[in-house]
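hi! just following up on the protien thing from before. the input was this:
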Amino acid sequence: MRRVWLRVVLAAGAGLASLVVCSGALVAIATLFSHTTDWFVIMGSGSWPSPIFWVGLVILLIVAAAGLSLPARALGAKRDHVTNTALLSGLGICAFVFFVVASLANPYVGVPLALMAIVATPLIGSLFAIREDYRYTGGLVRASVIGAVAIYYASLLAIWLGRGGEGWWLYSLVPVIVASTSWLVVPAIVAALRPG
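and the predicted 3d structure came back as:
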């Protein structure tokens, strides 16, 4: 029993570390872009980002990929499978960024899809991490999906509760924070219920 709890704590900690590393990398990329790029390049005029941006971008993407591999390693994935899981999770992060940008044009569509991408990333990554080494059980998949769906609907509820009033920009972060808890909860569920 103690070994199972150790596995759960390790997976949740790896999920938290992955979330912190990926969030930091996204903020660093946005900061690097804003300091090295002429804003007129977005409108079609101006110069492209400097070489410093591209070097920094490559370094930050490597750091983010290493962060995305942490939950897979904590769940016991092997070498090549860790890389595949990190790439799959990276697609989830890319979808999140795409839908955040899309929400600037249409927040009623972009925000729920961005929250869905942030919740689906650890769900798909955790289940994919154990796919080859363990057989799925119905309880593992069901509990993981129920946990992810509950967190997603809680983040949508947080949008509704945080509407209007003063400090709306602060309340706009609450749904993202609620959705981000899936990065701790889902790997922990998978670690607790996986066979072996």
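The mean pLDDT is 84.
The CA atoms of residues 25 and 62 lie 10 Å apart.
cheers
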